[in-house]
Amino acid sequence: MPYPLNTPLGRFGIETFEEGADRCVASIPVGGLRNPVTGAPTIAPMAMLVDHIGGLINHARRGPDQWTVSSELSLEVAPDAADVIAAAGDATVVGVARPLGGQGVAALGTCELAIGDHTVATATVRSFYITVPATLASWPTEPGGSLPGPELRDLMTVSVGETGGAATVLVQGDDPVLNNSVGAVHGGVSSMGLELVGSAAVNRDPSGPAYRTASLRVNFLRPFHGGGEAHYRARHSHLGRSSGVAEAEAVGRDGRVALIARLTAYR
Questions:
Q1: pLDDT reported for residue 143
Q2: Ranges for the Thioesterase domain (predicted)?
């Protein structure tokens, strides 16, 4: 099932093939997309797919009058993932999500992502259950919308920020198409933003071998709204011969930190 282009899932080409309480399957195209900061190929869209299918498997188990809110996302990337994506050309990653354990106030979904026969990542999403919010709005179901351009920066409505310091910044524009059903930036979009600035922060020196993202761990603290001064920013906390670590956060237009993340990368 493809989604209308005027929804977050439709904009990034996600298609859902199977949806249920025991298993969810969906895909996202990743070939040819580049980090707006570094210009290097990126695995960031896999975070969008993880947020979708991991959240979907948790959402499918909700009770009457319940809704789910993602609180944690963890992505573990295979060492050769970037090579597999590059070799696949117009690569499409397929993700399969299943529930892990029982549920209480929260639920945990586990995911496996692959290109063909090659597993490129595993992931988890933890969600907690709330009463259906009064502000909930339905996503469009009829075909509509158009893509703003083929580049990831256009799809995400982001621009590189001027810092003059050690931080790497991407400014998140206000684009209603990127919002979820409660009017905040979709969790998959914001997770991509954190991966992009985190990866760029550990690759600020282009003279050496590039660091490749190995893991991304995101905590969702509060709704993240784009526009105004909203941005993603990251600083490296460690750069070694073989590994690098960056701390990243998404700051909403109200100036409050909405998400935090840690990215680990290896050469």
A1: 67
A2: 183-257
